[in-house]
Design a protein that fits this description.
- The structure is a homodimer of 452-residue chains.
- By secondary structure, chain A is mostly helical.
- Chain A is 67% helix and 6% strand.
- Chain A folds into three domains: 129 residues, MgtE N-terminal domain-like (MgtE N-terminal fold); 120 residues, Roll (CBS-domain); 170 residues, SLC41 divalent cation transporters, integral membrane domain (Tetracycline Repressor, domain 2, Orthogonal Bundle).
- The first copy, chain A, contains 22 helices and six strands.
- In chain A, helix 3 packs across helix 5.
- The radius of gyration of chain A is 29 Å and the shape is globular.
- At the A-B interface, helix 1, helix 3, helix 12, helix 13 and helix 15 of A face helix 1, helix 3, helix 12, helix 13 and helix 15 of B.
Chain lengths: 452, 452
Amino acid sequence: MTVAADNSEDTRLQRLQDILASGAIREASRLLRSLAPAEIAHLLESLPPGEREIVWNLVDEQYDGQILLLVTDEVRATLIRHMDPAQLLAATENLDLDDLADLVQQMPSAITTQVMQALDDQRRKRLETVLSYPEDTAGGLMNTDTVTVRPEVTLDVVLRYLRRLGDGVPRDTDKLFVVNRDDSYLGILQLSQLVSRDPEDTVAEAMSLALQAITAETAKSEVARRFEALDLLSAPVVDEQGRLLGRITIDDVVDVIREEGEHQFMGRAGLSEEEDMFAPVLTSTRRRALWLGINLATAFLASWVIGQFEETLAKVVALAVLMPIVASMGGIAGSQTLALAIRGIALGQLSAKNARALMLKELAVGALNSLIWAVVVALIAGVWFQNITIALLIGVAITINLLFAAISGALLPLLLHRVGIDPALAGSVLLTTVTDVVGFLAFLGLATLFLI
Amino acid sequence: MTVAADNSEDTRLQRLQDILASGAIREASRLLRSLAPAEIAHLLESLPPGEREIVWNLVDEQYDGQILLLVTDEVRATLIRHMDPAQLLAATENLDLDDLADLVQQMPSAITTQVMQALDDQRRKRLETVLSYPEDTAGGLMNTDTVTVRPEVTLDVVLRYLRRLGDGVPRDTDKLFVVNRDDSYLGILQLSQLVSRDPEDTVAEAMSLALQAITAETAKSEVARRFEALDLLSAPVVDEQGRLLGRITIDDVVDVIREEGEHQFMGRAGLSEEEDMFAPVLTSTRRRALWLGINLATAFLASWVIGQFEETLAKVVALAVLMPIVASMGGIAGSQTLALAIRGIALGQLSAKNARALMLKELAVGALNSLIWAVVVALIAGVWFQNITIALLIGVAITINLLFAAISGALLPLLLHRVGIDPALAGSVLLTTVTDVVGFLAFLGLATLFLI
């Protein structure tokens, strides 16, 4: 969260924006040449549309592909829109297969066909394999550039084989995969083992059987959890028959983890984790409008509840002044329970099995907190409006709302998850609907019974 | 987010909870022996306190240390509480230094002293080095188990050296660090290069100079960004003089990225990313009470604003029914801009330089959306209360509030960041205070001017 003040990238962004503002294109171009593709990608995401397009045109074309991979989906779409077919085709050259697969899925289908035709047979076949799996599975994440060895050969033979491969050994290789004659996955040979053991040992002696392969259909969130739990750098991916298809490397998993975090955070505001900070105004407006509309419906529901008590309100205006407090306290308390539950579900740590324990604990917390805050609010309201009944009513209403907030905060996300709705997206809206309705109903309902 | 239905870990959690419920301790113990430390850690986090303590006592002591490292800080504290000094001392054996450093910082200081005394001189000195840097810097993340080589030797010599080291080569080594005589960092030698190049080449020929070392004082969020941008598996850490101190591996960076995501998500509800789902009721109550108290203060501020218009409300009760809609629409719209801005700041993509561009874009989005929704709300309110003035007033009030929401959503987090307050924690509270106050003020103020 804390960003170092002496952060060189921020300074570069500022310098570039100063240069662009002054219109010194040649100087901007020189600065860009001093940046790595990842730095340029980061910079493009930070720029408003106009400056973004200028900078994108200044970027050395040989880095187009890498940069397109590094920006978010939305920013990528805006960049692709400014490229002609020849540039797009050039951008797909020299990419890893998993990266290429990511990229072609967002390109116009005419370009995809051209890309496919430009590949040699082996690469095309491999690309088709990766594309045949949904993007959010292990198969969609994997790369097919595995280096495989047989169990019966000696480490010395493996070393000679690797030297023959030379640059064919991917830079981030940390382990080789051991397979038998029909490509079935058997185990792994860590490079650290390969270089530290006696070269006369066989692969079978030096290999590890402990790493279970991931099947291609596994969800990518599950892949991320496996990598985190076992501190993996790379892992084999197999088909249903156990044949090695490829490997997933940690850099792709890091992206999954970052996305999961942003999905929860942005989802709560009804936004996608891919949302471009500088998306076109009309695109943003359309998306936000939907979310505002949903929330408006729930706001009108709360208003309708208040409307049922118009007569009561007309007699005691103090109720109108105080009623937002009851709703707000419930919303805040409920959103805390909700956050715990959504994270628990995302991490696979909350299920129907332990939901009861969570709900009971949250009810206890809610009960204790309502004791504290019901008294505080009652005292303040009593002094403010010089009315003991109102003081008692608001205290009771807050207690009722905090208890409902605890129950719905714990159970709503589980219910949504059960019926296949993403709790990170819908949980917050539904929860505040409950706490608004219950809050107004309890406070105004009790007032109608005891005050009128 | 989606968790595979056939997830083996979930099934195991359910089986274990069934077994615990039936009291078959021996069976539970057998199930635990079939699980990896990471799986046990995950399981412990999912269990309510009582069951958690039972399971913790059943765990094979040799895995205590590893499991303690894998659970969140809060859960770790509850587990440590149930261990006696001898068990704690035993748990620190056979750990990597960066892990050991993490662990001893949470232990009673008497234990820490004992742990230090039990180490050999070299390890103690290294541990002190790691402990001398704050936990949230590169120095606090790093491990000192680097394998270093000199530039002038041949790859063959390196290979023989590694074979002599044998098990001394850390399992997740993907690169060696090249240093000169006084330990100054020069560059890296990828294992994939070491095994694929001619053994007669020198390290100087095979090494890469491209990877800049990270200084020990670098903030860990900056370390994470560097790893993500450059797809690193490990990176060297140096002191101010450029001397190699250790290395950071991606598994620790993955934890940082996960924590950052959870910090934003949980922070919005006033919770810490370390929050234990089953924290003791009193602990939770105390923490939540603080957050509820802060929010109560802002709710009373909004109530006070409403209170200024008691006479108006007494005359036109419809205003009380409709006023939550104005506040709610502003809160929702503002929280969307806020989410974009908080993420932008966290990623280092939003600063004073491009804040104006974001604010103008958000103002445009807010203006367009207020056009749509002001009309919708005005129509519904007009039909509901058969009053054109009320319809016009609520439309104008919503427009005003949406524009204020856009400005404060974009600027508040930057202001908070500037004065050193975490926007992920305080942003949401402050924003809804603004949208509540502005919403009520605009609607009731206009009504007082034009309706009474």
